[in-house]
Design goal:
Largest sheet: 6 strands, parallel
Strand content: 5-15%
CATH topology of the largest domain: Rossmann fold
Pfam families: NAD_binding_11, NAD_binding_2
Radius of gyration: 20 Å
Structural class: alpha/beta
CATH superfamily of the largest domain: NAD(P)-binding Rossmann-like Domain
InterPro entries: 6-PGluconate_DH-like_C_sf (IPR008927), 6PGD_dom2 (IPR013328), 6PGDH_NADP-bd (IPR006115), HIBADH-like_NADP-bd (IPR029154), HIBADH-related (IPR015815), NAD(P)-bd_dom_sf (IPR036291)
Distance between the termini: 60 Å
Shape: globular
CATH architecture of the largest domain: 3-Layer(aba) Sandwich
Helix content: 40-55%
Keywords: NAD, Oxidoreductase
GO molecular function: NAD binding; NADP binding; oxidoreductase activity
CATH class of the largest domain: Alpha Beta
Amino acid sequence: MSQKQSVAVIGLGAMGLPIAVNLSKAGFSTQAWNRSAAPAEIAEKGGVSICKEVSHIDAEVILVTLPDLPQLFEILDAGLRAALKPGQFIVIMSTTSPVEIVKFAQEMKTIGVNVIDAPMSGGELGAQNASLSIMAGGEESDFNAVKPVLDAIGKTILLMGPIGSGQLTKAANQIVVAINLSAIGEAITLARRAGLDANKVLEIFTGGLANSAALELRRPKIEARDFPAGGKSKFLLKDLHFALEAAKSSETELPMTALVTQLYAGLIEHGDGELDHSAIIREIERLND
C-alpha cells in the first residue's frame, strides 16, 4: 500500500472537520461526507472532495468521527455497506462501547473489511492542531497500515492491544477528564461561595500541582461562566456509562466514577447536555442553591 493512501472522513463535526482538512493539507487524497452542507463547504475550501451520497465514498481508509456506533449503523444502511470493498480499513474514532466495537469488527471481517478502534483525546484544539492523542485497538498489521494517516492528525499514537483496547483506554481517559473537571467545579464553587476571586484561584491552580490540560483548556469557559460546546456533556455522560459497563464486566469497583456519573446525569436532566463538559460546575452550583 502506498504511503499516501486515499482517505474518507465520515462526519464533519467539531473533530471531523479539522481532521479532514489536516489530512488534505498533509497530501492525502481526502473525501468526506456530512449530513449538513455548511461544514462540507468549509472542508471543500480546504481541499477535501465532498461526497453528496455516502454510497459515493471510495477510499482505502475510512475514518468515522460520528458520535457513536448507532449513527454509523444508520450510515451503513443508507448506502455505505454496499460501497465497502474487501481490503478497506474502517477506523472508528468515535467513543463507543468496548463490547459493541468487537461485535462490529467481527461483522466487518466477514466481508473482508478491517476495523481499528481509535478513539481520540485532545478536544477540538487537538484536532485543529493535528496534535491528538490516539489510542488504537486492532491487529498490529492493520494498525501499521493506517498509522501514516493517524500520524497526520495526531501526536501521540499507540496500539493498546486487540480490537476494543482503544475504547477501554478512552473510557479510562474519560474517567480522568470527568473527575478532574468535577473537582475543578467543586473547588471553584467553594472559592466563590467563600468570597474568593475565582480567577485568582484558577491562576494559582495553573501554577502548581493542581494544574492539568483539562484546566488549561477549559479555564476560559469556567472564568466566563460560558460553556459553548467543545466536548458536549451528554457525550461525556455516555462515555462514563461505557466505563461503568467495562468495570462491571471486569468486576472492578469505580466509586468516584459512579458519583461523577450521577453528577453528569443531573446536568443533562437540567437541560445542559449540549454544553461543554466543563459546565459540570453548573450542576455543583445548583446543589448549593
